[in-house]
Amino acid sequence: MSSMPTELRGLKVLVVEDNFLVAELVRSLLEDCGCETVGPAGRVDSALALIEDDDGALDGAVLDINLAGEYCFPIAERLHQRGVPFFFLTGYDDGQIIPPQFREVPRLAKPFDNRNVQCVAAEMFGR
Fold first, then answer.
1. CB-based contacts of 22-31 (< 8 A; 24+ apart in sequence)
2. What topology is assigned to 12-125 in CATH?
3. For the chain, which residues make up each domain, given as ranges?
4. Measured in Å, how far apart are the chain's first and last C-alpha atoms?
5. How far apart are alpha carbons 87 and 81 in whole angstroms?
6. 84 contacts 36 by C-beta, under 8 angstroms
7. Alpha-carbon torsion 91, 36, 72, 84, what sign?
8. pTM listed for this prediction
9. 51 φ, ψ (degrees, to nearest 5)
10. pLDDT tens digit string along 22-80?
11. What is the spatial distance between Cα 26 and Cα 37, in angstroms, rounded to a whole number?
Protein backbone atom coordinates (compact mmCIF):
# COMPACT_ATOMS: atom_id res chain seq x y z
CA MET A 1 0.00 0.00 0.00
CA SER A 2 1.32 3.46 -0.88
CA SER A 3 1.97 6.00 1.83
CA MET A 4 -0.38 8.84 2.68
CA PRO A 5 0.45 12.34 1.40
CA THR A 6 2.57 13.95 4.13
CA GLU A 7 1.93 17.44 2.69
CA LEU A 8 -1.40 17.42 4.54
CA ARG A 9 -0.05 16.76 8.03
CA GLY A 10 -1.23 19.47 10.44
CA LEU A 11 -3.48 21.26 7.95
CA LYS A 12 -6.98 22.38 8.91
CA VAL A 13 -9.54 21.39 6.24
CA LEU A 14 -13.26 22.15 6.08
CA VAL A 15 -15.51 19.31 4.88
CA VAL A 16 -18.83 20.38 3.36
CA GLU A 17 -21.06 17.43 2.45
CA ASP A 18 -24.74 16.72 3.16
CA ASN A 19 -24.53 12.92 2.92
CA PHE A 20 -23.40 11.70 6.34
CA LEU A 21 -21.62 8.58 5.08
CA VAL A 22 -19.73 10.47 2.36
CA ALA A 23 -18.85 13.24 4.82
CA GLU A 24 -17.46 10.71 7.29
CA LEU A 25 -15.45 8.99 4.56
CA VAL A 26 -13.91 12.28 3.39
CA ARG A 27 -13.21 13.31 6.99
CA SER A 28 -11.55 9.96 7.66
CA LEU A 29 -9.45 10.13 4.47
CA LEU A 30 -8.15 13.57 5.42
CA GLU A 31 -7.50 12.63 9.04
CA ASP A 32 -5.57 9.56 7.86
CA CYS A 33 -3.21 12.04 6.17
CA GLY A 34 -2.79 14.01 9.39
CA CYS A 35 -5.32 16.78 8.76
CA GLU A 36 -7.48 18.36 11.39
CA THR A 37 -10.97 18.49 9.90
CA VAL A 38 -13.60 21.15 10.49
CA GLY A 39 -17.20 20.01 10.13
CA PRO A 40 -18.56 18.25 8.31
CA ALA A 41 -21.17 20.86 7.45
CA GLY A 42 -24.21 19.69 5.53
CA ARG A 43 -25.81 23.05 4.73
CA VAL A 44 -24.68 26.37 3.30
CA ASP A 45 -25.48 28.38 6.43
CA SER A 46 -23.66 25.98 8.77
CA ALA A 47 -20.57 25.94 6.52
CA LEU A 48 -20.51 29.75 6.36
CA ALA A 49 -20.77 29.87 10.17
CA LEU A 50 -17.80 27.48 10.49
CA ILE A 51 -15.76 29.67 8.14
CA GLU A 52 -16.61 32.79 10.17
CA ASP A 53 -15.81 31.04 13.47
CA ASP A 54 -12.45 29.90 12.17
CA ASP A 55 -10.67 33.28 12.13
CA GLY A 56 -8.78 32.56 8.91
CA ALA A 57 -7.03 29.40 10.07
CA LEU A 58 -8.44 27.11 7.33
CA ASP A 59 -5.86 25.64 4.96
CA GLY A 60 -8.39 24.17 2.52
CA ALA A 61 -11.90 22.88 1.94
CA VAL A 62 -13.70 20.04 0.16
CA LEU A 63 -17.12 21.10 -1.12
CA ASP A 64 -20.07 19.06 -2.30
CA ILE A 65 -21.92 21.18 -4.88
CA ASN A 66 -25.51 20.28 -3.92
CA LEU A 67 -26.25 20.61 -0.21
CA ALA A 68 -29.84 19.56 0.50
CA GLY A 69 -31.04 21.42 -2.58
CA GLU A 70 -28.77 24.48 -2.17
CA TYR A 71 -25.64 25.05 -4.21
CA CYS A 72 -22.37 25.55 -2.33
CA PHE A 73 -21.29 28.60 -4.34
CA PRO A 74 -21.78 31.14 -1.50
CA ILE A 75 -19.32 29.00 0.48
CA ALA A 76 -16.90 28.91 -2.47
CA GLU A 77 -17.14 32.70 -2.76
CA ARG A 78 -16.39 33.22 0.95
CA LEU A 79 -13.43 30.82 0.79
CA HIS A 80 -12.14 32.56 -2.34
CA GLN A 81 -12.38 35.96 -0.60
CA ARG A 82 -10.31 34.58 2.28
CA GLY A 83 -7.72 32.98 -0.01
CA VAL A 84 -8.60 29.44 1.11
CA PRO A 85 -8.10 26.82 -1.64
CA PHE A 86 -10.89 24.32 -2.24
CA PHE A 87 -12.12 21.70 -4.65
CA PHE A 88 -15.50 20.26 -5.52
CA LEU A 89 -16.57 16.68 -4.82
CA THR A 90 -19.79 16.14 -6.71
CA GLY A 91 -22.22 13.84 -8.42
CA TYR A 92 -22.81 16.47 -11.12
CA ASP A 93 -20.99 15.93 -14.37
CA ASP A 94 -22.33 19.12 -15.97
CA GLY A 95 -19.80 21.87 -15.32
CA GLN A 96 -22.27 24.47 -16.62
CA ILE A 97 -23.98 24.69 -13.23
CA ILE A 98 -20.72 26.02 -11.81
CA PRO A 99 -20.39 29.83 -11.98
CA PRO A 100 -17.72 30.96 -14.46
CA GLN A 101 -15.31 32.15 -11.75
CA PHE A 102 -15.17 28.62 -10.29
CA ARG A 103 -15.07 26.51 -13.47
CA GLU A 104 -11.30 26.05 -13.23
CA VAL A 105 -11.54 24.70 -9.67
CA PRO A 106 -10.75 20.98 -9.62
CA ARG A 107 -13.83 18.77 -9.51
CA LEU A 108 -13.81 15.11 -8.48
CA ALA A 109 -16.79 13.00 -9.45
CA LYS A 110 -18.72 10.79 -7.07
CA PRO A 111 -18.23 7.97 -6.58
CA PHE A 112 -14.62 8.96 -6.04
CA ASP A 113 -11.36 7.14 -5.63
CA ASN A 114 -10.05 7.64 -2.08
CA ARG A 115 -6.48 8.15 -3.23
CA ASN A 116 -7.58 10.83 -5.73
CA VAL A 117 -9.20 12.83 -2.95
CA GLN A 118 -6.00 12.66 -0.91
CA CYS A 119 -3.78 13.54 -3.87
CA VAL A 120 -5.87 16.51 -4.98
CA ALA A 121 -6.04 17.75 -1.39
CA ALA A 122 -2.23 17.43 -1.09
CA GLU A 123 -1.71 19.25 -4.38
CA MET A 124 -4.09 22.09 -3.50
CA PHE A 125 -3.58 22.53 0.24
CA GLY A 126 -0.08 21.14 0.81
CA ARG A 127 2.68 23.26 2.19
1. 22/64, 22/89, 22/110, 25/114, 26/62, 26/89, 26/117, 29/114, 29/117, 29/118, 30/62, 30/117, 30/118, 30/121
2. Rossmann fold (3.40.50)
3. 12-125
4. 24
5. 15
6. no
7. negative
8. 0.92
9. -65, -45
10. 999 999 999 999 999 999 999 999 999 999 987 768 999 999 999 999 999 999 999 99
11. 9
